[in-house]
Specification:
Number of strands: 0
CATH topology of the largest domain: Rna Polymerase Sigma Factor, Chain: A
Radius of gyration: 18 Å
């Protein structure tokens, strides 16, 4: 079984063991960590930077920083939360350096996907509709104020709990809940019927993007492979 095919999803099973192995130089363990958490980190960074390329760069840098600190990871926090916090901080640092916004604030919560309806996407027409709804969702999320955008992605798309989001962004759970209500009000009018269908693929993390990030980080960690003898 290839490393890229193992240990996907949001389960934290074995994260502490993987972290210890990766810290000891096990590239297979590091790849498993990245493939498990890639989508969450990319979505978090993308929600801040609003640029696919910038988000990829931020995720790569976050993994390198995490790799350098893995020997100090003791499991006090969930590994996914710890990695997402590093990615968020890296994205915010890039945002500040580029001065894209006058003020950078912490983030809050978002739309309740339970209020959205579903649609039949089995037919070609349904597939076209799904793509249109996905694009609509991405446009509207990008238009959210910075105070809500990242938490919308982590809550509605990544389906993190309030406490998980609060841990990732280092804000109080009550702040997450309050901003959830406000962001939901902003999005409800245009997305109430479409969000549930669109959210599955929004800011999609295609296999090529996942492979590209993994390869780039492993190259930075291990250096270029020696030529065959």
């Amino acid at each position: 079984m290839q490393a890229g095919a193992v240990l996907r999803g949001r389960s934290d099973s074995g994260d502490l063991e993987l972290a210890a192995r990766a810290a000891a130089g096990d590239a297979v363990a590091m790849e498993a960590i990245m493939r498990r958490h890639n989508r969450t980190l990319y979505r978090a960074a993308r929600s801040i930077l609003k640029s696919d390329a910038e988000a990829e760069d931020a995720v790569q840098e976050a993994y390198v920083r995490a790799y350098q600190a893995l020997s100090r990871f003791r499991g006090e926090a969930n590994l996914g939360t710890w990695l997402t916090r590093i990615a968020v901080n890296e994205a915010l640092a890039r945002l500040r350096r580029k001065r894209r916004e006058d003020n950078v604030v912490t983030f809050g919560e978002a739309f309740d996907p339970d209020t959205a309806s579903s649609a039949n996407t089995d037919s070609p027409e349904g597939a076209v509709m799904r793509e249109q709804l996905r694009a609509l969702l991405e446009r509207h999320v990008d238009k959210l104020p910075a105070a809500f955008r990242t938490v919308f992605v982590l809550r509605a798309l990544e389906e993190m709990s309030v406490d998980e989001v609060a841990g990732c962004l280092e804000i109080a759970s009550v702040t997450v809940r309050t901003r959830y209500f406000r962001a939901r009000a902003l999005l409800r009018e245009s997305l109430e019927r479409e969000l549930d269908v669109a959210s599955t693929d929004a800011f999609g993390f295609a296999g090529a993007r996942c492979d590209r990030i993994v390869a780039a980080v492993l190259l930075r960690i291990r250096g270029p492979a020696a030529p065959p003898g």
